[in-house]
Design brief:
The longest helix is centred in the N-terminal third of the chain and has 26 residues, at 119-144. The protein has seven domains: 1-38, no CATH class; 48-238, Alpha-Beta Plaits, CATH 3.30.70.1230; 250-441 and 450-458, Rossmann fold; 462-512; 515-631, no CATH class; 654-767, Serine Threonine Protein Phosphatase 5, Tetratricopeptide repeat, CATH 1.25.40.10; 989-1094, no CATH class. It contains 49 helices and 18 strands. The strands form four sheets. Strands 1, 2, 3, 4, 5, 6, 7 and 8 form an eight-stranded mixed beta sheet that branches. A five-stranded parallel beta sheet has the order 10-13-14-9-15, with helices on both faces. It has 1094 residues and is α/β, with parallel strands linked by helices. It is elongated and about 125 Å long.
Length: 1094
């Protein structure tokens, strides 16, 4: 059973809580009411294991074997028991749990049963206290027995699996964190305390320690960077928090503080304002900045104190600290006389009590040691007298920080001071977490704040823009922030979370903290480990939840960052199916728990006016979700993910969501060694769902998402030929050609399914068109009957596209039209965006290169874009590129650049590797047609680099031809020749490229080898006539004109140029027409003979 006040685990027979003293009868008496109100579902579930961040301490005696040789057994036992008692007392005093005694060793855990955000500091304080306690014990032993004991201690922080049943005959915690702590202790020297890297980071900057260097610990493959503990500084916020960072935002909250203070002055009574917010949200910093601004102008006097949950201090110590610091500031400002006489020794009195008498009463107790030494009402009256006198000069603010740790007497005192009995101009600011006390009667009972609870100022996360500004400040001028959106989403506007995540990123970059991260899964992305400070902070908040609230958090964590109340009810029905609880009782429990979690700022609900949105909830930050998920045991995750896969909302989300839950269910069972029939069924269902989801993503051209899904599917089911083939195709599309080809070969050579083998054959042929491998068109003709027999529309679209491309390579664009239309038809039928885009892109290329005049081609291209482009980014990319060139041929430059800009913007999101090649090539074509040769050459250089990187050899040839033509047109013959040097002969080239190559070689050889040049020119023209492309024919004729002019055959050159002009004019190619006109307008060049050159 657990204490309802502090959640401490208690034995079943306990009458009082050993931690906070709450009577257990209260908890017992309250239980029946909860069951009566909420039905039998309110009964707590059986104990379960959970994962949590803890700090483990091992302490062992050094040289105990030698003692057994000099001490009587009974004496030795007495000494050992005194040692155990002294060590345990130090552990318990700081909230630790002595788990077990092993020989002479003590093992203690800080974080069981309840995680606290300062567990690491508590453990280090206990270790130092144990060393001091042993010194005191040694003084006694030396005097009575003439012996001295020595210890060594190891401390480590990290994730463990913790059992929730303390009566079970098993260890409370287990995991690598425990093993490392034990190894650190074994490596420590006499009297030394060795601490792990996670402990050093979690305990904060006031730890004084020196590195020991990397330690090779038994059972650990990697070394551990341990430190030797020297001292532990005070947990002063001035030392623990970064007040040097510029303050960002909070203008509304500062105005609220101004209003609260002004109200106390205006109404003539003291006020109490609770400033609440989760740990790290900036409560202390807000109050500090506000006070600094007010006091700088002399507008306020203040004092501050801080509540502590453990340690040796008076119950009212925080209030005493605040009053002392207030009076000290007054003494400093008002002179030595008042310092000697006390404030306002002028005979004034409040409620019949002189200020001097009030000071005397407080100095004898509250101001001396933080304890009341007088009746409660007398102490409060004396305090009111002193504060009211102090407020005569300027308003007074008493700050009580960490209010969530306030003792009941302190809460009662603060509310008594502000219950309307006077003290004008005094504001008591209580800054703490949402689960702190609201009023003197204790926590909210569900009917609103208790009487006298005071005003409330709740701090939420910083807005996105302000959080981004803070992140930039924290990162510094040279510390770029990778993944800013992800970082801000995880932090949820919490400044401390943001700071620690940035620290964690830098630690990861430098090697990270071993063994301190949360487990990847539904919570965080793989590799995103949380700093121990955040694990402790959030683990403490989640660990302090009531059982029903914790159940809801655990279920929601499995669903995801966002969830709905009906989903939780449905999932809870699976968890509690054997208990037979009704749906109404489950819904009531869920609603009550969600309301409580909302008050604790762990979850957020939708707007109340929208019923659908009101059913929707989300974790308040990504980190809360991550830590909640990480705290679940693997067995619990496995079960709940399997159930979550059956949720109607998950089924509606598609195969990706279903497969994700089934995959996690299988993997967690596998990690536990539970590879039974159920695990195998989960694996097979997960692989099938992920494979389907991957195929759907690939059909949408969502390559990166498809790759992730298919990779997971193949990992689960390596023998699935469909998933393996699709993964290979996606890798090829992403530019990972060698990896993709390996998978495709595996399917081609080993698949029993002829359809999958046919897909693999065709994909492999397309990898290197024109290369030494099989011709894609020949393979397409072979596999097309296989696709037709199977009714495979995607396969038929691909096969027809390859046949169409064969015609295009031959320059016969009209003949390609039939197969282009069939490819488009089957792609539309299959709903396959890449195939649709490929077919439409091929049509666009034929409209540009083929015989259709430019005006009609533009209209057709725009019509296709309107019919197929909506919501299909891949289609818009492949059609906008040829459309941009067509616009350029019409001299519509703005339209052309608009098409290119849209294509480049969309392609950047899609991830197709070939787009890195063809997009610069299309833009280079537009630039060249517009007369900007230098820009075109730069773009072709980028295209060539991308083609080299992705292994697209055929594209490099096209780039070289285009670049050589630009160099030659600029008169740089040597550089043009260099561009063509690597092209070789025309075998394997498309007909257009072969014509291009022949024409360029004709122009380059005209001055040296006139007969050879004439032959190249004639060859180019004859080959161009085998195509139906006016552009190919016009280019061949114009190259011939340049060659003949260089040979001095000017009449023939003019005729060739006019023939080129006719082709350009028929196509509507305005830049080409201008080029011909410019050629004809130039004066004839004299023929340069070989003798003149020599």
């Amino acid at each position: 059973m657990n204490c309802l006040s502090c959640q401490q685990d208690l034995p079943p027979t306990a009458r009082f809580c050993s931690s906070c003293g709450t009577p257990c009868a209260t908890a017992s008496a309250a239980a029946p009411a909860a069951v009566t109100a909420a039905g039998p579902a309110a009964a707590a579930p059986p104990p379960t294991d959970e994962r949590k961040p803890v700090t483990v301490l091992f302490c062992d005696l050094v040289g105990s074997t030698a003692l057994s040789g000099v001490l009587d057994p009974e004496t030795l036992r007495t000494v050992t028991l005194r040692y155990f008692e002294a060590m345990s007392a130090e552990i318990v005093a700081r909230g630790g749990t002595p788990e077990k005694f092993i020989g002479d060793a003590v093992m203690a855990v800080f974080g069981v049963p309840v995680v606290r955000d300062d567990d690491a500091r508590r453990a280090l304080a206990a270790a130092l206290g144990m060393r001091r306690a042993l010194a005191r014990l040694n003084e006694e032993l030396a005097a009575t027995l003439g012996i001295e004991l020595a210890i060594r201690i190891g401390v480590n922080t990290g994730q463990v699996v913790a059992g929730s049943d303390r009566t079970a005959r098993q260890a409370l915690v287990s995991g690598e964190t425990v093993n490392i702590a034990a190894r650190l202790e074994q490596n420590a020297g006499r009297g030394e305390i060795l601490i792990g890297p996670g402990t050093l980071l979690a305990a904060g900057p006031t730890v004084s320690a020196e590195p020991t260097g990397p330690l090779r610990l038994k059972g650990k493959r990697d070394s551990v960077e341990a430190h030797r503990l020297l001292a532990l500084g005070a947990d002063d916020p001035e030392l623990l928090r970064r007040f040097d960072v510029p303050f960002v935002g909070r203008d509304t909250e500062r105005r609220a503080l101004d209003a609260a203070l002004e109200r106390t002055v205006r109404e003539g009574t003291a006020g109490l304002l609770r400033v609440t917010g989760e740990a790290g949200i900036g409560k202390t910093r807000l109050v500090r900045e506000w006070l600094a601004g007010r006091s700088a102008s002399g507008g306020v006097a203040y004092g501050a104190g801080r509540c502590r949950s453990y340690g040796d201090h008076g119950t009212l110590a925080p209030l005493a600290d605040a009053v002392r610091s207030l009076l000290a500031a007054r003494e400093s400002s008002e002179g030595a006389q008042e310092a000697a006489d006390g404030p306002a020794v002028d005979g004034s009195a409040v409620g019949g009590l002189a200020v001097g008498d009030a000071m005397a009463l407080l100095s004898g107790g509250l101001l001396r040691d933080g304890t009341p030494n007088a009746p409660f009402e007398d102490m409060c009256a004396a305090l009111a007298t002193v504060l009211e006198r102090a407020a005569l000069v300027r308003p007074v603010v008493l700050v009580l920080d960490d209010w969530h740790a306030a003792a009941p007497l302190l809460v009662r005192t603060a509310h008594r001071l502000t219950d309307g009995s006077g003290c004008a101009g005094v504001l008591v600011l209580c800054a703490g977490r949402p689960d702190g006390p609201e009023g003197p009667e204790g926590p909210d009972d569900g009917d609103g704040p208790p009487a006298g609870a005071g005003a409330l100022l709740q701090l939420t996360g910083l807005p996105y823009e302000e959080a981004a500004r803070l992140a930039a400040v924290l990162a510094g001028p040279d510390g770029g922030i990778p993944g800013t959106d992800r970082l801000l989403e995880r932090a949820g506007g919490n400044p401390l979370y943001l700071e620690q995540l940035l620290v964690g990123d830098r630690a990861d970059a430098g090697g990270g903290v071993a063994g301190s991260g949360t487990e990847s899964g539904s919570g965080g992305a793989a590799g995103e480990e949380l700093p121990p400070t955040l694990q402790a902070l959030l683990g403490a908040r989640i660990g302090a939840l009531a059982r029903t609230e914790r159940d809801v958090v655990d279920l929601a964590a499995v669903i995801g960052r966002e969830f709905t109340a009906p989903e939780l009810v449905r999932l809870q029905s699976s968890v509690r199916a054997a208990e037979g609880h009704g749906a109404t009782a489950r819904r009531q429990l869920v609603d009550e728990a969600l309301e409580a979690l909302g008050r604790r700022r762990l979850v957020e609900s939708g707007p109340p006016g929208d019923r659908a949105a009101a059913e929707a909830y989300r974790f308040s930050s990504g980190l809360v979700h991550e830590v909640a998920y990480a705290s679940l045991s693997k067995r619990a995750k496995a079960e709940r993910h399997a159930w979550a896969a059956e949720l109607p909302s998950v089924l509606r989300s598609g195969d990706g969501a279903v497969g994700g839950h089934l995959e996690r269910a299988y993997r967690y069972r596998a990690e536990l060694g539970l590879l039974d029939d159920r695990a195998r069924r989960l694996r097979d269902r997960a692989a099938a769902a992920l494979g389907r989801a991957g195929a759907q993503a690939a059909a949408r051209s969502d390559l990166h998402w498809a790759h992730g899904l298919l990779e997971r599917a193949v990992e689960l089911s390596p023998g699935d030929p469909a998933a393996t083939r699709r993964l290979g195709e996606v890798r090829v599309a992403l530019g990972r050609a060698a990896e993709g080809a390996e998978l495709l070969l595996r399917v081609r050579d080993g698949a029993a399914d002829p359809v999958e083998a046919a897909h693999a054959r065709l994909a492999l042929a397309v990898l290197d068109p024109g290369g030494p491998g099989p011709d894609p068109a020949a393979v397409a003709r072979t596999v097309l009957p296989v696709f037709e027999a199977a009714g495979d529309s995607v396969g038929r679209a691909r096969a027809h596209l390859r046949l169409a491309q064969q015609f295009q390579r031959s320059g016969r664009h009209e003949e390609a039209e039939r197969d282009q239309a069939r490819a488009l038809e089957h792609a539309v039928l299959a709903g396959a965006e890449p195939e649709r885009a490929g077919a439409l892109g091929a049509i666009g290329i034929s409209l540009w290169r083929g015989p259709v005049p430019v005006p009609a081609a533009v209209i057709r291209c725009r019509t296709l874009l309107a019919a197929h482009g909506a919501g299909r980014p891949t289609v818009r990319v492949t059609l906008n590129c040829p459309l941009a060139v067509l616009y350029t041929l019409q001299d519509a430059a703005d339209d052309a650049y608009g098409c290119l800009a849209e294509a480049e913007r969309l392609a950047g999101k899609l991830g197709f590797a070939e787009a890195e090649v063809f997009l610069p090539m299309f833009r280079a074509t537009v630039e060249a047609l517009s007369g900007r040769s230098a820009a075109a050459l730069d773009l072709l250089g980028r295209a060539d680099a991308a083609a080299r990187r992705t292994g697209a050899a055929g594209m490099r040839t096209a780039v070289a031809l285009d670049a050589a033509r630009l160099e030659l047109d600029e008169g740089r013959e040597d550089r043009a020749a260099e561009r063509l040097a690597g092209v070789g002969d025309a075998s394997g080239l498309s007909r257009a490229d072969a014509v291009d190559l022949a024409g360029l070689r004709a122009r380059l050889t005209a001055r040296d080898r006139p007969e050879e040049a004439a032959g190249w020119a004639e060859q180019a023209v004859r080959a161009s006539l085998l195509t139906d492309s006016p552009l190919v024919q016009a280019t061949a004729e114009l190259d011939r004109a340049h060659t003949l002019a260089a040979l001095g055959r000017h009449p023939e050159a003019g005729a060739a140029a006019r023939a080129a002009g006719a082709h350009f004019t028929g196509k509507g190619h305005r830049p080409g027409v201008r080029r011909v006109s410019g050629f004809l307008a130039r004066p004839p060049l004299p023929m340069v003979t070989t003798r003149e050159r020599s």
